[in-house]
Specification:
Length: 294
Amino acid sequence: MSFRLRRSVTAYLMLLPTLVLIGVFVVYPIVDSFIISFYKWDMLSANKPFVGLQNYVYIFEDPLFHTALKNTVLYVVFFVPIVLALGLLTAVLLNAKIRLLPLFRTAFFIPYVTSLAATGIVWQWIFNDQFGLLNYFLERAGLHPQDWLNDPRWTLFNIITIGVWQNLGYVAVIFLAGLQNISREYYEAADVDGATPWQKFARITLPLLSPTTYFLLILTTIEAFKVFLQIYVLYGETAGPNNSGMTLLYYMFTKGFGDYRMGYACASAYVLFLIVFVFTLAQMALSRRVHYEA
């Protein structure tokens, strides 16, 4: 056996435990769920009649799926730009030389590593219409309090607020890493030319931060399509009043573990995958505008 072959065999043997785990817990569930999407199965019976594409047809005929798709798209459209803009603003502020900077960085990152299920009670209290903190500030400002949890008009607002709160720290930390990788020579040259702070931000910071922004754009978009926990924490199994908080992932959860229509739920999971895949391809077209520092 040659040295190159022995080295390859050794490498694959070292990778084998990881490959086995990936195969058992990632590849096999993906393939099996795709197969199940062509069957009618309630998880309780061994009988699984083959229905072909019927599950996929029913999905697009279901009005509740249209509601879930609309709510998910609205969530993505609002959540992604808001969390990116606030994350960049936070990163710029944290990048400044201020006292207790490590403490502020930790404070912003804590929501991302804190279980949302554990903080759900706090958010229910904040949005409570009787003694909630949000209505308290509205009354102090002379404004009319709102029924945040029972009014369908505020459902998406509530979900987006919690989503931004939870992910802001992570986005800010990634932006902060990108800011600290920009060479100070660019700013020193701009100072010599008499550039204003806004000109330096628009002509230096934003272009050189484009790889980080592009990475976060794809990441937060995928994360937005998977919105589920915020809804479950606030509304439980109701998905908000009049299904105003129904999203694609919540729809899949309801069909699979509420109605026990596992084949239908698997089909809806692959519809969600296809939608995310199309959005990701569209975002990849923006890669030509990404400026990588030489």
